[in-house]
Amino acid sequence: MVNEVSEGHPMLAGANADAEPRVFESLRKRPRPRAERYEIGRSLRKEVPRRTLGDWKVDSDSRDPIALIERSHEGRVPGLVPVRVARMAASPYGFLRGSAVVMADDVAGLPSTGITPVVCGDAHLGNVGFYASPERDLVLDLNDFDEAHPGAWEWDLRRLVASTWVAGRETGASEDKCRDAVLTCARAYRDELRHLAQEPLFARSFERIDMRSIEKHGTESSLSKEPGAGGQAGA
């Protein structure tokens, strides 16, 4: 079903590249109309309902996280490997942050829509932070793209919300608050994608979240006390 729906769509796994070649390589080439792309998305829901994205079962017979972590150490500076392991052993959040390979192995076999953009590959909460833009404005953005690779968009979202829950536990938040934070994160992700889907392709490159927008839309009063609030450069 997915392959039938995705025929000719270059962002879908198994797509027929000859049907719509290199359509996103140039702003001079028109992609499929939005209405048609929305219909493709709705068709994918029939094959991969949203409720199935919450299912996860550990295959304890074949799962070997230690072996995966040891493999991920290959090519690293030997003297820094013990430092990395010590940081991972310090807390559940530290382990989650340093074990992207384990989570990738966990989610690789889970249901996904087959839409395969270039994903961050390590979109945990610790890789989101404040940075100074070239204009010296303080912006909120994602960093650390050394694991970036074509993959399911669901992988990044799963890592982001999982790290949000684990980080909440580490800071002493209740399970209810962790759940609320995860649901808020997922809703915000959905709403932003809906917004970007309506924007022209070129305009999406200029979307950004700065301190002014956070101060305006944030619900926490403590945000106004952050350095750089009100649009001042903070780095």
Your description of this structure?
Pfam families: DUF2252. Residues 1-33, 215-235 are annotated as: Disordered. It is a single chain. The protein has a 3-stranded antiparallel sheet. It has a two-stranded antiparallel ribbon with strand order 1-4. A hairpin with a 5-residue loop joins strand 2 (128-132) and strand 3 (138-142). The N and C termini lie far apart (49 Å). It folds into 2 domains: 1-47, no CATH class; 48-225, no CATH class. The model is unreliable at 1-11, 14-21 and 226-235 (pLDDT under 50). Helix 4 crosses helix 5, helix 5 (92-98) runs antiparallel to helix 7 (153-170) and helix 7 (153-170) packs antiparallel against helix 8 (175-198). It has helices at 2-6, 34-47, 65-72, 81-89, 92-98, 100-107, 153-170, 175-198, 211-217; strands spanning 118-119, 128-132, 138-142, 149-150, 209-210. It is mainly alpha-helical and 235 residues long. 43% of the residues lie in helices and 7% in strands.
